[in-house]
Design a protein that fits this description.
CATH superfamily of the largest domain: Cytochrome C3
Distance between the termini: 54 Å
Order of helices and strands: HEEHEEHH
Number of domains: 2
Largest sheet: 2 strands, antiparallel
CATH topology of the largest domain: Cytochrome C3
Number of helices: 4
Strand content: 5-15%
Radius of gyration: 21 Å
CATH architecture of the largest domain: Alpha-Beta Complex
Bound molecules: heme C
Strand order of the largest sheet: 1-2
Number of strands: 4
CATH class of the largest domain: Alpha Beta
C-alpha cells in the first residue's frame, strides 16, 4: 500500500514538473524583438517569430544576424549569440538611439530588400495587435 502511494506521488509530481518545464520553454520562444535599450517604444513591438522566421527564410548561419567582428572584418566562424544588438550598437539610448534603430532597420529591411521578399513597410514589422 505504502509503496503505491509513493509511486502515485512521484508520478503526480513528475507530471507537474513536466508541465512547468514545457511552459517555461514555450515562454522563451521569441515572438517580438525586444531590445532592452528601448525603454519606451514609440511604435508597436516588432513581430519576429525567431525560429519560424529563420526556417522560412532559409537562413542557416546564426551569425548572419548575431555577427562578430575583429579589426573591421566579420568573423566567419564566430558569433554573438546571447548578446543584444545594443550591447555593441550604441547601448546609450539617449544620445544615439537612432544608430541602434538604424542597425536594426539595415539588417532586417536590408535583407528583405535584397532578397525582394519580407516586409519593408513600417506597419508590416511594427504590427498593431
Ligand atoms: C534574422 C536574424 C537572426 C538570425 C538568423 C538568428 N537570430 Fe537569434 N535573435 C535575433 C534577434 C533580433 C533577437 C532578439 C534580440 C533582442 O531582443 O535583444 C535574437 C535573439 C536570440 C536569442 C535570445 C537572446 C536573449 O538574450 O534572449 C538567442 C539565444 C538566439 N537569438 C539564438 C540564435 C541562434 C542559435 C541562431 C541560429 C540557429 C539565431 N539566433 C539566428 C536575430 C536572429
Ligand atoms: C559583439 C558586438 C556586436 C553585436 C552583438 C552586434 N553587432 Fe552589428 N556590428 C558590430 C560591428 C563591430 C560592426 C562593424 C562596424 C560597424 O559597422 O559598426 C557591425 C555592423 C553592423 C551592421 C552594418 C552592416 C553589416 O552587417 O556589416 C549592421 C546593420 C548591424 N551590425 C546590425 C546588428 C544587429 C541587428 C545586431 C543584433 C541582431 C547586431 N548588429 C549585433 C558589432 C556587433
Ligand atoms: C538574411 C535575410 C533576412 C534577415 C536578416 C531578416 N529577414 Fe525577415 N525575412 C526574410 C525572408 C527571406 C522572408 C520571407 C520568408 C517567407 O517567404 O516566408 C522574411 C520574412 C519576414 C517577415 C514576414 C513573415 C513573418 O514571419 O511574419 C517578418 C515579420 C520579418 N521577416 C521580420 C524580420 C525582422 C524583424 C528582422 C530583423 C530582426 C528580419 N526579418 C531579418 C529574410 C531576412
Ligand atoms: C523589417 C522590419 C522593420 C521595418 C519594415 C521597420 N522597422 Fe522599425 N524596428 C525594427 C526592429 C527590429 C526594431 C527594434 C525594436 C525593439 O527592439 O523593440 C525597430 C525599432 C524602431 C524604432 C525604435 C523603437 C520604438 O518603437 O520607438 C522606431 C522609432 C522605428 N523602428 C520606426 C520605424 C519606422 C518609422 C519604419 C518605417 C519607415 C520602420 N520602423 C520599419 C524593425 C522594422
Amino acid at each position: 500500500m505504502k509503496k503505491n502511494k509513493i509511486l502515485l506521488y512521484t508520478v503526480v509530481f513528475s507530471f507537474f514538473l513536466l508541465i512547468r518545464i514545457f511552459s517555461a520553454v514555450s515562454q522563451e520562444d521569441i515572438e517580438t524583438v525586444d531590445d532592452s535599450a528601448f525603454k519606451k517604444l514609440t511604435r508597436p513591438p516588432v513581430s519576429f517569430f525567431h525560429d519560424e522566421h529563420n526556417e522560412n527564410a532559409n537562413i542557416d548561419e546564426c551569425n548572419v544576424c548575431h555577427h562578430m567582428f575583429e579589426d573591421g572584418e566579420k568573423l566567419e566562424y564566430d558569433d554573438s549569440i546571447g548578446m543584444e544588438c545594443s550591447a555593441c550598437h550604441y547601448s546609450e539610448p539617449r544620445e544615439t538611439e537612432a544608430d541602434l534603430i538604424r542597425s536594426y532597420h539595415l539588417q532586417c529591411s536590408g535583407c528583405h530588400l535584397k532578397q525582394k521578399t519580407g516586409p519593408v513597410m513600417c506597419g508590416e514589422c511594427h504590427r498593431k495587435k
